[in-house]
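Problem: given the chain below (161 residues), write out its structure.
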Amino acid sequence: MNQTHIHLLITHLPIFGALFGGFVLAQGLWTKSHQTKIAAYTIFIISAFGAGIAYLTGEAAEETVENLQGVIEATIKQHEEVALYSLISLIILGFASILGIIFTLKNSPLIRIIAFIILFISLISFGLVARTGYLGGQIRHTEISKNVIIPIENSEKETDE
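Solution.
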């Protein structure tokens, strides 16, 4: 397994972690369960680590695909730029979640306010990381790409028949 494989495997963790963690945190707020909030914070921290690994392995993944036919350099650059914002938001989410755990364990009166702030950050993070994943998917998944290039040979064959 190389860094490209790791990148492709780990990129789903921050996407689903931000989404699933948000649902768990909302449930924790609804039920007023501190254990459920801590579970959500743990999911967010794991997601932040996953985002870091995905970002660090992104360069190797780029080198693997940049010379393949049909891969557009501009799509890679756009994915890379949004990935940086996603990483920053998930790092903020991870650190906020550490604070959330600390405040929850200390039974602070700010638990609920902090949980809502973290939920808001998770929604922003999910939006950014989902966009990053969408752009990353466009690099090699032509079925979702707007930039599909049809080779001339295929179009000529279709018109000759």
